[in-house]
Amino acid sequence: MLKRFFRNAAILCMTFSLVALPTELLAAGKSQKRIHASYKAGKKVKALKVKAGRYSSYKAKIRLRNQRAWMAQRAEMLGNNYDGSGVLQLSSSKALVINQITGEVVYAKNTNTQAPIASITKVMTAMVMLDAGLSLDDTIYVTSEDVDYLKGSSSRLPVGAALSRGDMLQLALMASENRAASAIARNYPGGRQAFVQAMNVKAYAIGMTHSHFADPTGLDSGNVSTAEDLVKMVQAAYQYPEIRMATTSPSHEVYMQGRNYPVNFNNTNGLVRAGEWEIGLSKTGYISEAGRCLVMQAKVGGEPMIMVFLDSNGKLSRIGDANRVRKWVEYNKEYQPTTTGQNDMLAEGRIS
After folding, report:
1. Fewest Cβ atoms closer than 10 Å to its Cβ: which of 104, 204, 267, 304?
2. What is the pTM of this model?
3. Is 352 a catalytic residue?
């Protein structure tokens, strides 16, 4: 009887063990799968992190390479890579640099080629306004007639802005404000048409025989001149203290109606803002038809020079051309005239 009891108990235990074993094995299998899945996920995350790290490193290298390339290009455009010892080569397609006192030609390139001059026009605008003897204290207004519908250029002078004629002149020359130049012409005796006519009369009077002016701002590509003519214009404009002062101011603040704080305008010529040059007159210009332009009177190597750079492709190239001229003159104290392109005027002796 006892034997039968133990035998039945043994059989029951064996049966229970056989029933429980698959469940344990299944649980163990599931646990093993979870461990394996977690391991695979960990490896995948690690691989993704490594891949992301490599990609970030690659992107950083590309950014660094692009930055170095841009810095090298910028240095080249600014003339930083030129020490003055080599041949003087400028990127502007038309250029003329002369000694203001002696008339000696330092550099000439395509000087007789007529081209749009963009906002260099505003130097003539200033001379015509000043020649009229109008009060610089008179208040003039910006109206809808002064808005640029030709190029769609922006302006920080809203319609209705009221400033003195002197402030309008300052902003037109220093910050190249088109609305200021337009307002000046509109408030001329006889209006804008009479003003443009006076611009062409003035040009002819100072010997600018290859120039024509179509508007007072330079937005019209019909404002054309040559490097040779622009040297004459700078020479004439240099006689006006108001033009010299306005074009060499790094910045200027004006108060406008409805604002409790002054609005600051900066000079468009970075060389003036930097303050490292001794500049007596300056004007920049740009429209797509003209490229980047710059005219300056400045002391270089202790000598007063007039520089004209027209149709420069890069935004910094005209500044780079000025820097290259300065370095070349300072390196070569006894410089020889450097000519490139159309320079009939040299042979004819038309520079004075």
Report:
1. 204
2. 0.77
3. no
